[in-house]
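> forwarded from #structure-qc
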């Protein structure tokens, strides 16, 4: 399927916060109740529409476990957007946000759009981090913010599309040199694209796995 733009995303945050579940809910509209520990990096893709244009999101879901940290750092580089995820029912995953941000600032391009996500908002009875705390952290660090549930699908669609809208806005404002793919943005070809005729063969949704 042709697209106007391709945006590369990375999903980061502590192990068990629900990164893979957010991706699965977004690409397959399913919830995985068992923790399937990500080894290295997994990959997913989906098309969305912004401003009547087809945008392909190519999403790298990283492993949160400390031992994979050096592998996942390699994926920051070419990302236009990041979902930085914590678990609202586990305080320590919120406390570690500063260290994730430090990694992002060090290894990503400075124009990367970061969406802070307080996931598992269906677990209200076990909430350990208030919505206000999430909002404050986001404001102080120049991030966008949303609470989601990969289980009920609440705000999952919005988290991915709002991030894309911000990236799209930056393109319109001339922030990116879109011919330079190191910003994590690629101009498409074919009908519906901004890059002229040709067309690319792409499945509208796909997932696969890779390590390293
Ligand atoms: N109640 C609830 N559970 C969730 C939600 N999202 C994920 N989980 C559960 O949390 C556990 C971990 O989810 P994963 O998506 O595998 O976590 P991860 O962040 O990918 O973990 P790593 O791959 O180790 O970094 C699983 O048992 C999920 O079922 C949510 O929104 N609500
Ligand atoms: Mg995972």
């Amino acid at each position: 399927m042709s697209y106007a733009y391709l945006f590369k995303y990375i999903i980061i945050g502590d192990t068990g916060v629900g990164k893979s579940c957010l991706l699965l809910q977004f690409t397959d509209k399913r919830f995985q109740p068992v923790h399937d520990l990500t080894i290295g990096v997994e990959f997913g893709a989906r098309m969305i529409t912004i401003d009547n244009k087809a945008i392909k999101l190519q999403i790298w879901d990283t492993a949160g476990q400390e031992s994979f940290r050096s592998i996942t750092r390699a994926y920051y580089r070419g990302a236009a957007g990041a979902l930085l995820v914590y678990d609202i029912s586990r305080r320590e995953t919120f406390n570690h946000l500063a260290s994730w941000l430090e990694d992002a600032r060090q290894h990503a391009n400075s124009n990367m759009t970061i969406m802070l996500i307080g996931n598992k908002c269906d677990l209200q009875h076990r909430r350990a981090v208030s919505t206000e705390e999430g909002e404050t952290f986001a404001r102080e660090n120049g991030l966008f913010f949303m609470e989601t549930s990969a289980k009920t699908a609440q705000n999952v669609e919005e988290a991915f599309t709002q991030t894309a809208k911000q990236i799209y806005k930056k393109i319109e404002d001339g922030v990116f040199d879109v011919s330079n793919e190191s910003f994590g943005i690629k101009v498409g070809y074919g009908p519906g694209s901004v890059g002229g005729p040709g067309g690319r063969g792409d499945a509208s949704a796909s997932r696969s796995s890779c390590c390293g």
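QC bot note: Residues 5-187 form a domain with the Rossmann fold fold (CATH 3.40.50.300). The longest helix spans residues 156-172.
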